[in-house]
Amino acid sequence: MRTSVDLPDELMKKAKIKAVEEGISLKDLIIRSLTNELNQTKDVQGTPWKDLKGKGTTSGLSADKSGFEE
């Protein structure tokens, strides 16, 4: 599929240089980069958990029932 994207000149320059250094086409670099970005899992450390203080058990708590939505 063909598409047009307006990229900053400096980013395009760096991408072309990297493609040459790696001996691959610019197209292959962009495909690989997008694939890697889209396949990354989200950083669990960024989850907005709150510290809960108190007494009692946490056995009934689970991350999927936390109420936080992505």
Give a description of the structure.
This protein is mainly α. It has a domain at 7-36. The longest helix is centred in the first third of the chain and has 14 residues, at 9-22. The model has no long low-confidence stretch (mean pLDDT 84). The radius of gyration is 21 Å and the shape is rod-shaped. The protein has helices at 9-22, 26-39. It is 40% helix and 0% strand.
Radius of gyration: 21 Å
Strand content: under 5%
Helix content: 40-55%
Overall shape: it is rod-shaped
Mean of pLDDT? 84
Major sheet: size, sense and barrel closure? Answer: none
Name the helix and strand elements from N-terminus to C-terminus, one letter apiece: HH
Features:
mainly alpha; about 70 residues
What is the topology?
Elements: H1 9-22, H2 26-39
Helix pairs in contact: 1-2
Q: TL;DR of this structure?
A:
By secondary structure, the chain is an all-alpha fold.
